[in-house]
Amino acid sequence: MAGIRKEDIETPALLIDMDLLEYNIKLMADYMKHKKAKLRPHYKTFKCPTIAHIQIRAGAKGICCAKLGEAETLVKAGIQDVLIANQVVDPVKVTRLAGLARIAKLSVAVDNPDNVRELSKAAKEHDSTIYVLVEVDVGMKRCGVNTAEEVYNLAKLISDSEGLVFEGIQAYEGHVILNPNINVRRRGVEEMVKKVGGIKDFLEKKGIKVNEISGGGTGTYNITGDNTIWTEIQAGSYVFMDTSYNQLGLGFKNALTVYTEVIHKRKGMAITDAGMKACTTDHGMPSVKGYPSMSVQLHEEHGLITDQKDELSYMQKIEYIPGHCCTTVNLYDQYYCVRNGLLEAVWPITGRGMCI
Question: Is the pLDDT of residue 3 over 80?
């Protein structure tokens, strides 16, 4: 299939512009090269081990993900350092995690002492080592603990538990990461550094070393990652970008698009074959690449484009820039990788649907 013209790819399809993907990866790698923090890209965005390997070759220390199923696809593909930046609490999943930790370095977030005990039990049974970070809630109000005492109690329990290694703190500032005002993002990070820094000092005064502080994301990579106390930056969306992140002016380019065809044309309106089942709308509607004045509304299987200048034509193939790259990727089984108008490769999205 490689070598066919882009125009011959059937729609809807998920496209990667290879030149722009490589540009984004290099831009991030060059920025992080001289920082104290190391890049640990978030797999939930791209869900493709091929991209994970490219990022590691460019300097990333490892990969993080949201789910155990994603971690399994990464380790199967040869990635040897994986952080599950989430809690794994179901006993069956804890057993799977402990088994996986026999063949790769596996880290996981915790916020509950019972979970720590279950992880230790499973690690002992599998003769494996699990690295553990205590999650601190810095504003997302999801998982995580809040006080230095809570973190210390969990860290002490982890340190005293067979099969576990206390690695440090997980703290993610998702509550500010998409705010278009960089001053708001900066203040959010400053508050977070103060809180987590105080917790780190508290732990180390009590003799517990904090090796890693992991968090950050695309919207704050150049704030949290700018020689703060953070040691890992979990940016993911920078590889592709989307309309939400475009608002922040970060310098990364839109490497990911949804390829769609005009299946009906009338005055002032074009209808395409890509709707909500081909492009998610949780962060808003997509935009039309190359046509900034056009607006899009998505139905289940159709895209309705306001084409006031009648620039589009029947059977023309165009590209949507998704509102949210991460959730759009999860709709597809494969990427069509395009360079200079030709299909260069087809990459499987092996992490698709790995929500367990």
Answer: no
Q: Directed axis angle between helix 91-100 and helix 68-76, to 10°?
A: 20
Query: Residue 26 phi/psi, 5° resolution?
Result: -65, -40
Q: Which helix (H) or strand (E) holds 135?
A: strand 130-135
Q: In terms of C-beta density within 10 A (0-12 exposed, 13-18 middle, 19 or more buried), how is residue 290 classed?
A: exposed
**279, HSE (Cβ side, Cα atoms, 13 Å):** 34
Sign of the dihedral through C-alpha 344, 348, 352, 356: negative
pTM as predicted: 0.96
**H or E element in which residue 133 lies:** strand 130-135
Q: What is 6-13+250-348's CATH number?
A: 2.40.37.20
Residues 52, 56, 62, CA angle at the centre, nearest 5°? Answer: 80
Ordered alpha helix ranges (H), the chain: 18-32, 43-46, 49-57, 68-76, 91-100, 113-126, 148-159, 182-205, 221-224, 243-246, 325-329
Owner of token pair 């193939």: 317
Compute the radius of gyration of the chain from its Cα atoms: 22
**Side chain identity, residue 291:** Y
In CATH, the number for domain 18-239 is 3.20.20.10
Domains of the chain, by residue range, sit at 6-13+250-348, 18-239
Q: Which two tokens stand for residue 210?
A: 């904090």
Neighbours of 125 (CB within 10 A): 12
* Pick from 6, 13, 10, 11: nearest CA to 331: 13
pLDDT tens sequence across 15-41: 999 999 999 999 999 999 999 999 999
